[in-house]
Amino acid sequence: MTDVVPSLDSPHARLTVLSGPTAVGKGTIMAEMRRRAPDVWISVSATTRAPRPGELDGVHYYFLTPERFDELIRAGQMLEWALVHGSNRYGTPREPVERELAAGRPVFLELDLQGARQVREAMPDARFVFLAPPSWEELVRRLVGRGTETPEERERRLSTAREELAAVDEFDHVVVNDDVERATDELLTLMGVTERVD
Predict the structure, then answer these.
(1) Beta-sheet strand order (sheet of 78-84)
(2) Which of 31, 33, 49, 186 is deepest in the core (most CB within 10 A)?
C-alpha cells in the first residue's frame, strides 16, 4: 500500500497558502490533499455567509454571525480576513495555525487574494501558490456549471476573478488546475510531501 505523507522534519514543513480565482477548483484540490496527505494540517476558515447544502459547521467552515466575527477581529484572533465578492467575510483563526506550525506540522491554507496578501505581511516566510485555470473560458464554464449562484452573483464573481488573475505575479509558484490529480501532485511536491510505501 502506498501512502502520501509529509516529511515533517524537512525544511518544507511550513505554511503553504493556496489562492486563485473563483471556481478554479481550490476546494476540490483541498479535498484531494486531505485524502492523500492526512498529516498535513488544513485550516478551517471562518465565514459570515450561510452554509451551502451539505456544508457542516467546523468541517467546511466555521459559520459565524457578523457580530462574532467582529469580536474575533477586535481581539486579534484572525490571522487574516477579507470581504469577498462585496458581501461576506472570510477569515483564518490565528491560534490553531500558530499551534500547528509550532509543533512542526505542515499547514495548508486556502484563501482568497486579499487573505493571501494579509498572510504575506504577517508570515512572509510562507509559501504562496496560485491555482490557475487552464483558460478563462474554462473558468467561466466551471462557474456556470456549478449552478450555485444567480446570474448577478456570477457576474460579480467573474469581475473578482479578473482582478485575482491579474495578481498571479505576487505568488511564488503557479499550479494550473487542468487535472485534479496532476495539480495535486505538483502542489504536494512543492510542499515537500514524500511517498511512503508500507
Answers:
(1) 62-63, 46-47, 88-93, 78-84
(2) 33
